[in-house]
Amino acid sequence: MSFRFKAVCDSSASASGEELKKQVVNLGDGSEVVHISRFLPLAESWKWFDYLDKEIPWIRPTIRVYGRSCVQPRDMCYVSSPELMELSYSGYQPHTHSWDDFPRLRELLDAARISEFSIFYVVTTMKNLIAFVVLFFVKVRKALPGSRFNSVLLNRYKGGGDYVSWHADDEKLYGLTPEIASLSFGCEREFLLRKKKPKAALQGQGKTAAEEPLSKRLKSNTIDQHSFNLKHGSLLVMRGYTQRDWLHSVPKRAKATETRINLTFRLIMQ
Ligand SMILES: O=C(O)CCC(=O)C(=O)O
Ligand SMILES: [Fe+2]
User: Which positions does UniProt annotate for 2-oxoglutarate binding (predicted)?
Assistant: First the structure.
């Protein structure tokens, strides 16, 4: 059973001016999660879901997990700028879609007056995607003043058998205290967080934190586990030392038969 977190609730205004219910969960030791369940209106979210589902050039790459090659259990796409450091995870370097191949798209960025974002992307049908990403950057920034992002990793879970296993987005290119803003569309899925075990204890057992069975951790300390139901149109932000001290996952769920799309916005340090 997952631990029910004690949330500190406050609220902030959305881009359109209405009140957004914002949950701020203090994980301790400088780690924090912000959850806004109704970040985007439902109808607008479905529009974006359909768009992303159809137009993103999704791929399902082969990655390496504990020395073995396997097909990643979800589709993905990656968007960033060529001058930024390249992302690499699980022995896999995703193709970086760049907006430099499509100079006219800069006009769109300027029009949105967010030229400080050196993002982006595009393949043939991507004009709408740029508008889409710009819109969200603006909305996320309004809800979380001071946030900055310059890349986005897109994931598509085509049913309850698709998942992301325990990991931390602690790659060096994001720095020590990355802020990661995650937008979800479509099928509601559970998002879990659990505290990493101190390195010394795991090394003694010849294990990494991700290999420690969940059942064992729950027996020992349920307080180190948090669960969020990520609804259609929701926003979840991890910040502070969350990537250093915690792992997160979206586990398989037999009952989740429909597709879910998730976008995680990140800042690559230059
Ligand atoms: O799908 C999600 O909610 C999380 C995805 C994630 O953790 C990642 O892409 O690193
Ligand atoms: Fe992640």
Answer: 155, 157, 167, 248, 260, 264, 266
Is 35 in a helix, a strand, or coil?
Answer: strand
With a 6 Å cutoff on the Cβ, whether 250 touches ligand 1 is: yes
37 CB near ligand 1 (under 6 Å): no
Read off the pLDDT of residues 55-78 as tens digits, 9 standing for 90 and up.
788 999 999 988 899 999 999 988
Alpha-helix residue ranges (DSSP H) falling in 82-213: 105-111, 127-143, 199-204
The two structure tokens encoding residue 83: 């001058």
User: What are the residue ranges spanned by the domains of the chain?
Assistant: 22-196+223-266
ipTM of the predicted structure?
Answer: 0.99
* Residue 264 annotated as binding site: yes
pLDDT (mean) for 193-213: 64
Atom 10 of ligand 1 has which residue's CA nearest to it?
A: 169
Protein residue with its CA nearest to atom 1 in ligand 1: 262
- Write down the mean pLDDT value for the chain: 76
221 labeled binding residue: no
User: Which is the closest atom of ligand 1 to the Cα of 182?
Assistant: 3
CA 221 to chain centre: 26
Ligand 2 ion local residues (Cβ < 5 A): 169
pLDDT at 134: 67
Rounded Cα distance, 241 and 211, in Å: 21
Specify the fold of 22-196+223-266.
Answer: Jelly Rolls (2.60.120)
> In Å, how far are 67, 94, 183, 246, 256 from 263, measured between CA atoms?
27, 15, 5, 20, 18
Our answer on whether the CB atom of 267 is closer than 6 Å to any ligand 1 atom is: no
Nearest to 179 by CA among 12, 26, 31: 31
pLDDT in tens, 223-255: 699 999 999 999 899 999 999 999 999 999 999
pLDDT over threshold 80, residue 179: yes
Tell me, in angstroms, the distance from the centre of ligand 1 to residue 107's CA.
30
